[in-house]
Design brief:
The protein is an all-alpha fold. It has a domain at 53-108. Helices cover 70% and strands 0% of the residues.
Amino acid sequence: MIFYFMLGMLISVCFLSLSTLIYQTSIQQSDQKMSAFECGFDPLSYPRSPFSTRYFVLILIFLVFDVETVLLLPILSKEITTSHPHVMLSLCSFLFILLLGLMVEWYQGALEWH
């Protein structure tokens, strides 16, 4: 029993000293080697680079219309001809609101890339 305890303590001390040794050698390396690598980005540049707000608005519009399309797919998977009239009315009103939103975004110029 004491043998296994001593063996466990020896292995623990070996791993602890090995990790300390690795840590000490990594501190001695330069900061450039320790920085995270991101493809195409200079790690020494200012992290808050400006981005186009137009692009952000376009992505938000895409997400809204994408979610509406996902909500529309289960309705279209059913046979519309055998469904009740209120389902057809709700489908038409949903499509009308979707088309109206698209027209408003188009009129405001959010879909144009300048």
